[in-house]
Amino acid sequence: VSTNLTVIVGGGGVGKTTVAAALALARARTGARALVITVDPARRLADALGVHVGIESAPVRIDGVELYARMPDARRSVDLFADWLFAEERSMGDRVRANPLYRELADALVGMHEMVSVAIVNQELETGGYDEVVLDTAPTRHALEFLDYPARLVDMLEARTVRWIAAMAAHSGVSLEGQPRNKGLAAWGKRRIQALLGKVAGTLALGDVSALFAELIAVRERWLGLLLAVEQRLASAETRYLVVTTPSGAAIDDADYLLLELHRRGRHPSRILVNRVVESLPAWLTQVQPVTDPCLAAVQRAYLAEYRARVLQSQRARERLAATTDVPLTLLPALRTTDPRVILTGLADALAGLSSR
Amino acid sequence: MAAAMFLSSSQRVVFVTGKGGVGKSTVAAALARAEADRNDEVILIEFEGSTAAARAVGEDSEGIRHLGIDYFGALVDIMASILNSRLLARVLVNHRAVRRLVRAIPALRELAILDRVHAIVQARPGLRAIVDFPASGHGLDWLRVPVAAERFLRAGPAAELCRRLRAQMLAPEHSAIVVVSTVEPVVASETRQLCERLAEELGRTPSLLVANRIPASPTPEQLEHLHRQAHVDPVWAPFLAAAREDRALARDAGEGLEALRAIAAAPLVRIPELHLDPAPRDLRAYFENAL
């Protein structure tokens, strides 16, 4: 049984996480084994589902329907990732974990989260036994970074740059990786580049760097295999991309940008989900007659003004999207409630049509 | 140099941060508008192809310079300053293997771009830079990069760069941090966590907190009238229900606002949900009046 992957992307605050959870719920309602997993460090999945969500996959019950949810913790996941990477070389893994550079990278530096998320998503796709995995990403730019990350790392690992830098670091930034095969211009260029890099890096914690890189090279094949698998999944025509937006001008700008960037990467979103749409004035507002009580009249006027503006904004958003893209739209209504569970089930109803492929 | 009161004249860089979708770019644009209107020289900076802040400024851009910093450009600058040669820096950054490597190295991008911001304000005394950070917890990660990188770089030009950024840009006397939030309790609590981490990991408190898009709701008096009306005319009952939902939303927003107020001694600017896509000029007054 192969697992379908749906990737949810969009600007900040448009409801990506809730839409991702609702889509997984809609799939689960049809009897599928569905997982929603977030790689957004904002960690809103628990709020969207209204339940505790762990760092490992666990079942969640929504109105008698079971789906799975997972919210990895970046810091702890780095160690899990290292465990996986060095599964067959335990002592090597221990050395890596003790390396001060590794600790800094794992604790503090951006980019780690993306890499670890790649490993987690791959694990769920290959061994989770799901019919559908819905992947909730971080806002706009970070989603693109996540999507680019596997290919970038593959590039680096395949370019032998890592090996090269490790050798360079080990020899204080001046030596070559073995002897150059030819003594032509290319070899001279390589020496120059290495000398320049050495100058930039200076005495950049050389021991730590070369030690860490040496360990990483040893497990290069394993790492590369993971990255290629994920890259293949992300690039596959089977993988579905959904862009979430709202009618607000800033959210549509984000959606435009994402559509452009996804197309540039050869990923073609199958749908744009416009969340919190107000298509027409609500019945509760139009069915009441004008009143003479000035206090009531003021409320009525205020609500009419607000909803007219919202209807207009939703219309403009649809026109803008229609003018810039052929990707079909699904409109998700604005739900008037503060209850996350009502929003979740309401969105799952609206997404029922999208739950099959 | 006349400046907004939450800023001292030595704070040459204003970092605008906050979770996704809270209106960071709109606030950054409004701050730039306010500064430009005080006859300050102001540059609005965003990173790597993002144009959200520029779009928020729109056509009302008089006196506001805009700059998008891209990674490889910034990398050439940084290398040029270390190697004392722009040509060598170009050769290095354009080298295929180096390019592949630097695309995958974490944190190098953040360092290079922050250094570019620093260089811009250093080059022009009197210029104030408003920086619209990328969304999410990532804004904090950006500021933390020089601190973390310095710890393991220890010595050499790159470590020196981190030290320079910390001392000359990330110290409270040289930069202000503006944290933007909305008042939904979930977002407010995420903002509180962001501020706690700012304090713990960087020893910084926000110079200004912005509570954005505070929703309007019917007054208790209006609700009372609606209640009576629904009693005599049942067609008003759903209207009453909708108004009550909004009242509940406003109560939640009140809790969120309390959570924000409890964060720190930082001044809090409250901006109501004005209308659907506000312009910087609409928001500018809130920064002027509140300070």
Oligomer: heterodimer
Identify low-pLDDT runs of chain A.
Answer: 172-182
- Secondary structure category of chain B: alpha/beta
Question: Largest beta sheet of chain B, briefly?
Answer: 7 strands, parallel
List the secondary-structure elements of chain A in sequence, H or E.
EHEHEEHHHHEHHHHHEHEHHEH
The helix tally of chain A amounts to 15
Order of helices and strands of chain B: EHEHEHHHHEHHEHEHHEH
Rough outline of chain A: elongated
Percent of sequence in beta strands of chain A: 5-15%
Helix content percent band of chain B: 55-70%
Compile the SSE list and pairings:
The complex is a heterodimer of chains A (357) and B (291).
Chain A: E1 4-10, H1 16-29, E2 34-38, H2 45-49, E3 58-62, E4 65-70, H3 74-85, H4 90-98, H5 100-108, H6 112-127, E5 132-136, H7 140-158, H8 161-170, H9 185-201, H10 206-218, H11 220-235, E6 240-245, H12 249-264, E7 271-277, H13 283-286, H14 294-324, E8 329-333, H15 340-350
Parallel strand pairs in A: 1-5, 1-6, 2-4, 2-5, 6-7, 7-8
Antiparallel strand pairs in A: 3-4
Chain B: E1 13-18, H1 24-37, E2 41-47, H2 52-57, E3 64-69, H3 71-83, H4 86-94, H5 96-104, H6 108-123, E4 127-132, H7 138-153, H8 157-170, E5 175-182, H9 185-202, E6 208-214, H10 220-232, H11 237-261, E7 268-272, H12 280-290
Parallel strand pairs in B: 1-4, 1-5, 2-3, 2-4, 5-6, 6-7
Helix pairs in contact in B: 1-12, 3-4, 3-6, 6-8, 7-8, 7-9, 9-11, 10-11
Question: What are the key terms here?
Answer:
heterodimer, A: 357 residues, alpha/beta, eight-stranded mixed beta sheet, 15 helices, 13% strand, elongated, B: 291 residues, seven-stranded parallel beta sheet, 12 helices
